[in-house]
Amino acid sequence: MTVEEEVDDVDGRLEASTGDESNMHEYDSIQEPYLDMIFESAEAASRFYDNYARQVGFTTRVLSSHKSECDGLLISRGLGCKGYCGDQTKDQLKKQDKQRENCPAMIHLRRYKTGRWMIKKFVRDHNHPLVIELEENHSRLDEEKDKRIQELSAELRVKKRLSASYREQLLAFMKDIEDHNYNISVKVQRTLENLKKLDAKAQELLHRR
Fold first, then answer.
1. Closest by Cα among 52, 172, 192 to 44
2. In sequence order, what are the residues at sequence separation of 6 or more whose Cβ sits closer than 8 angstroms to the Cβ of residue 131?
3. What is the pLDDT of residues 62-84, one digit of tens each?
4. Which of 25, 62, 174, 207 is most exposed, with the fewest beta carbons within 10 Å of its own?
5. Cα(66)–Cα(60) distance, integer angstroms
6. What is the pTM of this model?
């Protein structure tokens, strides 16, 4: 078998591709496999599919590997769904094993003379629920929460400084009012004392007459 020869479908589960599938490059902002997608190596393709699976909500397994009869080099590989992760009972795990045996989701890769690998078949749909790993989401949420806490803490510090500044201004204003009232009170007292003195002198002058 040569590199350019067609490889048989794996377990009869590979679906014939259509022209429309080649345009399905993204799915809900997740980089999705598509027909004729090129990779520099089989390992790069496996890493890509593993990452895609983790984001969508399943784990992967190697379905098949074919080598050339001429040089023994790997020329094709099938990667498919292994199932989904999560906290499950034994019965659920057994049910999952049965489901994954018939899960059609997979990609089929072929290597060409250039050494590059290309996706020749892609099946998106699964026959079981998908459970997205929450670890990355939790990490992102924690980062967002920490960032928001830092922002709120910074706002609180600013408000505390403003509050302290306003308090100082208010105290200074109240002190000015107290000083002003005191000065007025002193002036009024002095005025009253002067008026009493004038009244006493006026009374004294009247008695002398």
1. 52
2. 57, 58, 84, 85, 86
3. 999 999 888 888 999 999 998 76
4. 207
5. 18
6. 0.47
